[in-house]
Each structure stands twice: as C-alpha cells, then as structure tokens.
UniProtKB/TrEMBL annotation:
Residues 34-343 form the Uncharacterised domain. This is Relaxase. It comes from Conservatibacter flavescens. Residues 509-628 form the Putative conjugal transfer nickase/helicase TraI C-terminal domain. NCBIfam families: ICE_TraI_Pfluor, MobH.
Length: 631
C-alpha cells in the first residue's frame, strides 16, 4: 500500500530532538504580549501527547511514514495556531483551545473512521486496497476543518504593529489577538482548503490523487461542499460534534479523560451565546433585551427557551420546566434575584423615541460582565427607562408579551381538550411511561378528513332516493346542471378564504421540514440513539411526536403549549410527506414503534416519512434495530 508513497518522499532525516518542556502556562509579558512557541513546545503536554499516541494507534505504518504523513503536518498546524482559542466564548475558548480542539477532532475522526468500510459499495478487495488512503483523507480533513477561523475570525498583531497571518507559521515577534466583529463564516472552509497546501505535503496529495474517489471527497469537503463529500463529511461532523460536547461537559464516550465543565459554566456559556448571537439588545423599539446602568434586562421566556434549546443541541441535560431552570440560574448567581428572592422582574418599558408598550414585561436581570468579559464589546445603553413594578403571582411559563398575545388569539377550549384526552386515556390498554408516549391514543385518533367512514342513511335520504328513481332522465340532467352551477358559485365565494388559510399552513409546515432537514444534513440533530427525536425505521424516517415539534417551537422561541404543537402537526400533515397507517377500513397519520429492550411496554409514536433523501440526501442510512414498527 505504502510502497508508491514511500518513493514519493525524498530521503530525509526524521530524527527529532527529545525536548522536555514544562509548558502549562503561556509566556506573556506585563502588557499581555504572548511569546511564540515552537511546535515541539506546543505539543509537549500530557493531554496533547496522549492525543498523538491515540492517532498513532489508529494507523498502521512505520514510524518514519507516520512522521512524514501526520506528525509533520500536525507540527506545522501547531505552529500556525499557537495559543489561539477555537472560539470567542463557546467551546475551547481558552488559550491554546484551537490546538486542543484540532487534536481532539483528529483523534475522534480516526476512531470513528473504523466504523466505516470505504469506499461504499466497492468490492472487499478494493476497500482493503484503499483503506489507508481513506484514513489519510479523514485525518487531513479533520486537520483543516477549523483552521480558517485563524484568519476569518481572528486578527493577530505583532509587537511591531504589523498584522500576522497564520499561513506564515511561527510569529516572528510577541503577538496579541482580537476577534473580528463582522466576519464571514462561509469563508472558513474556503481558507481551510487554501491553508491545506501549507500543512499537507505535496507527496501526500500526489499519492491521494491516485485514488480519485477519496481525493475528490477530500477536496469537496475542504471547500465546504459537504453534500458531495459523502461519508467523509459525516465522519468529521460527528468528530467535531463530539469534541464540542466534550468541551462543554456533554455525555459522550470519551477518548481521553478531560476536566468536565460544571452545569453552572455550561449555563453561562449558553446564555452568553444566546445573548450575543440570538437576541436583539437595546433596540430603539421592540427587542429581546435592554442594557442599562443597573444591568442587562432580558425576556425571561425567550432566554429560557433559547438556552434550553442550545444546551439540548450540545447533548447536555437541562430542566424542562422554566422554574427549575431559573432556580439553577439563581443558585449559581447567573441572574440577580428580586427583593422577594424570585427570578422574574416585572417591568414597564419606555423608550425616549416614544415607544411604550402597554403590557408589563417579565424580565431576568444579568450582570453585564457575565455576558461580555470585555467592556468594549457591550452594546450601547438603552435610550429610555425600565421601571420595576410589584411582582405578581403568575405562571412563569406564560410570560412575555408574545405569550400574552398567543393566549388572546387562542380559539380552543383547553378544558374540553383536557376532558377529551382523559376519555381517550381510559381506553389505553397499558400505561406507557415514555414522555413522548403520554399522548399515544390521543394521537392515534387524530385522523384525517378522508378517513371518516360513511354515515348511516337517514329516513330523509332514503325517501329522497326513492323520489329520484321516479324522475325522467332529462329531468335529472336539468336538476344536476342547476345544482352544479349553484355549487360553483358557493365554492367560488369560499375558495379565496380557504386558499389563504391553506397556503399559510403549508408554509409553516415546510418551515418545520426545512428546519429538520438542515439539522440532519449538518449533523446538528442525532438520530437512532436512545434520546433521539428521529429514527430510521423500515427504511423510512420516523419523526417522534410530539417532542420533535416541541423542540422546533422551542428553538424558534415560539409558544410550545399543547395547542401550538397540535396545530404544527396538522400543518405538517397537510404537506402529504408522511405515510398513513391503514387500520381496517380507516387510516391514521401516526405509527407506533415498540422499543426493544428492558422497558418492554415502551412505545414511540410518530410520523413515518418514506422519502429519506429529502432529509439526508445520499447519506447511507441504517435502520434502528431497537425499534419495531407496528403494522
């Protein structure tokens, strides 16, 4: 396998100096200028050496070949990233975070690669022949997957005042760095493919080019065309996701032991991300938060929902109830408590430009330094006033002006709906404990209109049929023509209203589909695992109900009560993407899957969508062997 590659490398000395460096802290002068490190110094920490050892264990080659193929590119990578962080305030945001994240992703990717037989659908002999080429493609893609951040996101300044670019290697002088506020994230992969030419030896590219499928997948992925990179892109996205979850303390299978971040720190990181990336702060009109000299005031429900969605996306367990989430924030002094030791501040807002909402807002108050470590990054103070009023005993889950509006517009009698659910539950054969199965029978009875059986004939109908049989054919024709004309007039008067309602519902249904598709294509939503909201069952996509729809509404910051969830499910049904379940002469929109495992009475309820390509593209999918579809 490596004979041709060995010939490509010139005979060079591969000896390395055995330098032992105690390097736990950066070398900085009193003004904060960071001294540059050599690659040997940067990689000579216990954790980073363990990552290198893990990589060595995953590949099968001589030490000399390992040095040429992987060790030297990793050393050049270390020289480029130095002590730069991997993100401004998210995962691996510490000094040296970029190097740690890069090594973690490489280690995870090399491990995950063992679960794939590449290239797909090739004969075993060809797969064995190309094994090492695909492994190299995985490792090289992991190496450059985030390197573009060092140029797009960060500005490096040398002590002599000149700007330094990462592709120049080790900085020639002490340096400082700062994050660029307006940055183009789509440039990350573009610059990654550019810098790959500096990191990866030409001989390695020459060798990989002899395996066109592996080479093209690597080039597509480096350039950001993940949809054309196939399994290669999937491996790196999973590895990156695992590294992020590991840094944030998520529950994953760890390659090496690393410090676990407390839930308090996870909350701070999540709220910081939500405030800086999702919310509109100190707007002249309506917004999500307002910065004053007394602190940062933010919408309580909006922040709770967005924070929960963010943490759930990182694989971190978080309380589903807002009260409990606020209790956690108070316990860790993330938010400031009122005089009554409650989390919610009820306030009236008034802007200097005349904007003055009538309703009081339920807000959280946060110290600005928790969100912005650098005072220069803070937005302008709110041009107006925020007046605290006496707190009232209200439902925290139904606060904020948008929730009030939703309640006003509600047309469903929730009391009747609750009574209906209780009647249905009485018909349930066995109690199902899974949270997503509490509405099993209720959901199974949500039949579409075309599934309604034919009603029995009344006496009037029978009598009318008898009269029709006595009429002459030409008389019947005239009556039918008159009836059709009248129906056309009636239909015309109703069609405009119906089309408006229908198009609006379809649009909302497609918004959910697009959200789910983007989540799955970008590996931001897991499937086929124990807590997943979607699964592959019988070669179809199984969308768990109602939790998948609740998650969508939560992430979008929308009301996610029972009525809203049911409405969204009806709007999804109108798209006609799902396969209906035939039960005798009737049909239902929902399917049940029995969970095969210790919980023998556990079921999942959801929609079955045959068109998996709509959500996964050409990705190779495997059915979840722990779920059995009930026909």
């Amino acid at each position: 396998m490596f004979k041709s590659l060995t010939k490509l490398f010139k005979s060079k000395s591969t000896t390395h100096q055995n330098i032992t460096v105690e390097n736990p802290l950066p070398r900085q002068d009193i003004d904060g200028w960071i001294m540059p490190y050599s690659a040997v110094e940067l990689l000579d920490t216990e954790l980073r050496q363990r990552y290198l050892a893990l990589l060595w264990q995953q590949v099968s080659m001589t030490r000399e070949m390992f040095n040429n193929l992987y060790q030297k590119p990793l050393e050049r990578y270390a020289e480029m990233v130095q002590l730069l962080p991997a993100s401004e305030s998210h995962h691996h945001s510490h000094l040296g975070g970029m190097l740690d994240h890069g090594l973690e992703v490489i280690s995870f990717a090399a491990k995950l690669r063992q679960n794939y037989v590449l290239p797909l659908n090739a004969v075993p002999e060809e797969q064995a022949k190309q094994k090492d080429a695909w492994t190299a493609a995985v490792i090289y893609l992991a190496l450059v997957h985030d390197i573009g951040k060092t140029i797009v996101d960060i500005e490096i300044q040398l002590k002599n005042g000149k700007r330094w670019f990462a592709w120049n290697g080790v900085p020639t002088e002490p340096y400082k760095f700062k994050y660029i506020k307006q940055r183009d994230y789509e440039l990350h992969p573009v610059l990654g493919s550019f810098i790959a030419n500096y990191l990866i030896p030409k001989e390695a590219f020459d060798w990989l080019a002899t395996y066109p499928e592996a080479f093209s997948s690597l080039m597509y992925a480096m350039a950001g065309h993940y949809d054309k990179a196939g399994a290669l892109s999937e491996i790196i996205q999973k590895a990156d996701q695992n590294s992020v979850a590991l840094a944030l303390g998520g529950d994953i299978t760890k390659l090496v032991q690393a410090p676990v971040i407390s839930f308090a720190k996870q909350l701070v990181l999540a709220i910081r991300h939500v405030v800086t990336q999702k919310l509109k702060i100190s707007e002249k009109g309506p917004g999500d938060g307002w910065l004053t000299e007394h602190g940062l005031w933010v919408m309580s429900k909006t922040v709770a929902d967005q924070t929960r969605a963010y943490l759930m996306g990182q694989g971190i367990s978080v309380p589903a109830d807002n009260r409990k989430l606020f209790d956690e924030m108070q316990a860790h002094n993330i938010i400031e408590s009122t005089a009554d030791d409650t989390a919610i501040w009820y306030c009236l807002l008034k802007a200097d430009n005349g904007w003055k909402p009538k309703d009081k807002f339920s807000l959280l108050r946060i110290k600005p330094e928790i969100i912005w470590e650098n005072i220069d990054d803070r937005p302008l103070l709110f041009a107006g006033s925020i007046n605290v009023i006496e707190s009232e005993k209200e439902n925290i889950d139904e606060t904020d002006s948008e929730s009030i509006i939703t309640k006003i517009n509600a047309n469903v009698d929730l009391e009747q709906l609750s009574e209906h659910k209780e009647e249905v539950y009485q018909k349930t054969e066995a109690e199902i404990h899974n949270r997503d199965n509490e509405s099993v029978d209720f959901l199974l009875n949500m039949f579409s209109q075309d599934s309604i059986g034919t009603a029995e004939k009344t006496n009037e109908v029978v009598k009318a049929e008898a009269e029709i049989k006595t009429l002459k054919p030409e008389t019947i024709s005239n009556l039918v023509a008159q009836s059709v004309a009248q129906d056309t007039i009636n239909d015309t008067t109703q069609s405009t209203h119906i089309s408006k309602v229908s198009s609006s519902s379809v649009q909302r249904g497609w918004q959910f589909v697009d959200w789910l598709k983007n989540k799955l294509l970008n590996d931001k939503l897991t499937f086929n695992d124990r807590t997943a909201k979607v699964h592959i069952v019988d070669n179809c996509l199984f969308i768990v109900s109602p939790s998948s729809f609740e998650m969508y509404l939560q992430e979008k910051g929308l009301t996610y009560d029972e009525e809203s969830v049911n409405n969204l499910q009806y709007e999804f049904q109108e798209l006609g993407l799902h396969k209906k379940r035939i039960i005798g002469d009737d049909s239902t929109n929902f399917w049940r899957c029995k969970v095969i495992g210790p919980r023998k009475d556990s079921f999942l309820v959801g929609y079955l969508v045959p068109d998996t390509k709509l959500f996964f593209g050409e990705k190779l999918l495997i059915n979840n062997r722990h779920l059995l579809l009930e026909e």
